[in-house]
Specification:
Number of domains: 2
Number of strands: 13
Oligomer: single chain
Largest sheet: 6 strands, mixed
Distance between the termini: 42 Å
Helix content: 10-25%
CATH class of the largest domain: Alpha Beta
Strand content: 25-35%
Length: about 190
């Protein structure tokens, strides 16, 4: 038995647009459903690697914790993007958003986003530690959390004067006063 072609070619990057850095947020929004997850950086599409099981578990456990503890005017989310410019978009691992929201949107605006969380993996270290905080800060997102794995350790930053300042970090319990009173036991998000 041989596989029959589905009549449709799988989506791929346009090499000319990629070399010219000519992609826009409109291109990302019009991607077919079978396209891989991508981020847009200065008009270049970056295919986001699939996260490991441990990475996903940390993100999912944090989403669940936020779902249970965040005030009703916040909505936690995963696997959605933040449109930080016409030629830039990012897909944080976990977000905390302001309600009301349109639940059918795949991309949100920075002013709807309260916290962005990146779970650091070996292949994303440089971007999660150095590049993404600068982009999120420039977009005006009030809080950035970075979660290191093995052991799980959370670093929480607040936007102050256009850049992020570390306000708390812990491998045991993250205690914050903003965006709401938080006492997050790190064991609750550790697989």
């Amino acid at each position: 038995m041989t596989a029959q072609p589905a009549g449709r070619v799988m989506w791929t990057l346009d090499p000319v647009k990629q070399r010219m850095a000519a992609y826009t947020l409109e291109d990302v929004l019009s991607l077919p459903e079978d396209a891989p997850r991508v981020e847009l950086r200065d008009g270049v599409m970056i295919v986001v690697p699939s996260p490991s099981i441990g990475h996903q578990q940390i993100g999912n456990l944090l989403w669940m914790w936020l779902r249970q503890h965040a005030p009703d005017h916040f909505e936690p989310a995963t696997a959605v993007g933040v449109a930080v410019g016409l030629r830039d978009s990012l897909e944080p691992d976990v977000l905390l958003l302001r309600r009301p929201l349109t639940l059918t949107h795949h991309f949100l605006l920075p002013d709807q986003t309260v916290v962005v969380v990146e779970v650091v993996s070996p292949g994303t270290r440089r971007r999660d530690r150095m590049e993404k905080p600068v982009i999120y800060a420039a977009a005006g997102i009030p809080h950035y959390w970075r979660i290191e794995q093995d052991p799980v350790h959370v670093f929480a930053y607040d936007l102050v004067g256009g850049s992020y300042e570390l306000v708390a970090d812990s491998a045991e319990e993250l205690v914050l006063t903003a965006p709401f009173e938080i006492r997050l036991p790190i064991a609750d998000i550790t697989p």
